[in-house]
Design a protein that fits this description.
Strand order of the largest sheet: 3-2-1-4-5-6-14-15
Strand content: 15-25%
Largest sheet: 8 strands, mixed
Oligomer: single chain
CATH class of the largest domain: Alpha Beta
Helix content: 25-40%
Distance between the termini: 27 Å
CATH superfamily of the largest domain: NAD(P)-binding Rossmann-like Domain
Number of strands: 15
Order of helices and strands: EHEHEHEHEHEHEHEHEHEEEEHHHEEH
Structural class: alpha/beta
Length: 366
């Protein structure tokens, strides 16, 4: 199969869809890999490294899309890329379609076979989301701490505190991979952490393996309301695979919080879990609502593209090999790949995406 890797052009995005090592594995299995010129520069992978791994370097994104049967990316296509997609093409990337109705319509109109990293399940795991969730979770604590700084509009409280000074409080909404990473980082800096989730089995497990500075709470509206009153940093990591994130903190609730506190919305790719959230970029990462700093960068791991690209390729490569080497009618009989499928032959095939946009959907096997 001819697999194209275009350069990522979303604002402040420096990751790339595959490493030279990943290219070598695909080529070894008989596939042709097209890399857009300088596509890996942002992650520290030069064209020469891809050439040595057996890839072909092409001069433009248009050529990559035109010649490729399958496109591998990091982020969802943006508007300038819509026209480059062509009917029958396979798209394998993060899609987050529940937050993007226009892209959903384009993929249906062009009859794209769209497989989303974030809805590919293996048992209870989301293996292609996990590496980026871990990075984003750690970043959420680090950048939340930075934006508590007075010069960034925050309250001026150092997250780790100091001897003789009251300990700072962090609230983490969601106890998945990102939530655990965020809580670990916050506890490591010396903060007191409260983690909320509705999965009591997960909370019990984390209670036994995490720092005693992290306490576990069953997620209720009342519990969240009480906890945010004294919080310095609130990190939202809630995920409903394929669906829009629930709004756990409303605009009205901001008035309960201390002025200069920071909200970090890791769920922003899925619409955000704070009512007042909207996507931001690394160049302009924050905004303020009612005295509360909001950090809502939609591609957080893009700030560390070298680490992120390697981690992502390690996760996606086995699935990319299977997709590229297996006829679709056989591949999609496997529930793992059927679950990753979001659009096919002009139809939405993921119920959560269809519900988010009030559109019709059809299971692949129908």
């Amino acid at each position: 199969m001819i697999i194209g890797i275009p350069k990522e052009i979303k604002t402040d995005e420096f990751r790339v869809g595959i490493t030279p090592s990943g290219v070598r594995e695909l080529v070894k299995h008989g596939h042709t890999i097209l890399i857009e010129h300088s596509g890996g520069d942002g992650s520290g992978f030069e064209d020469s490294a891809y050439l040595e791994s057996g890839a072909h370097i092409v001069g433009s994104a248009d050529e990559v899309y035109t010649r490729s049967e399958m496109i591998m990316k990091v982020k969802e296509p943006i508007e300038i890329e819509y026209e480059r997609l062509h009917e029958g093409q396979i798209l394998f990337t993060y899609l987050h379609l529940a937050a993007d109705k226009r892209l959903t319509e384009v993929l249906c109109d062009k009859k794209i076979t769209a497989l989303a990293y974030e809805t590919l399940r293996v048992g209870k795991r989301l293996p292609l989301l996990e590496p980026m969730s871990e990075i984003a979770g750690r970043m959420a604590t680090l950048f939340g701490a930075v934006h508590l700084g007075r010069y960034n509009g925050g309250s001026g409280r150092l997250l780790g505190g100091a001897v003789g000074v009251e300990t700072n409080r962090v609230v983490v909404l969601g106890a998945g991979v990102a939530g655990k990473a965020a809580a670990d980082a916050a506890a490591g800096l010396g903060a007191q952490v409260v983690m909320f989730d509705i999965n009591t089995e997960r909370l019990t497990y984390l209670r036994d393996v995490m720092s005693p500075q992290v306490s576990m709470m069953y997620s209720t509206h009342e519990g969240i309301e009480e906890s945010i009153k004294n919080a310095d940093l609130i990190i939202g990591t809630v995920l409903l695979p394929g669906a829009k994130a629930p709004k756990l903190i409303t605009r009205e609730m901001l008035s309960m919080m201390k002025k200069g506190s920071v909200l970090v919305d890791v769920s922003i790719d899925q619409g955000g879990c704070f009512e007042t959230s909207h996507p931001t970029t690394h160049s302009h990462p924050t905004f303020e609502v009612e005295g509360i700093v909001h950090y809502c960068v939609a591609n957080m791991p893009g700030m560390y593209p070298r680490t992120s690209t390697i981690a992502l390729t390690n996760a996606t490569l086995p699935y990319a090999l299977k997709i590229a080497s297996t006829p679709l009618n056989v591949l999609l009989k496997d529930e793992i790949y059927a679950g990753a499928l979001n659009t096919y032959e002009g139809h939405i095939t993921n119920e959560a995406v269809a519900v988010a946009h009030d559109m019709q959907w059809r299971a692949y096997n129908e």
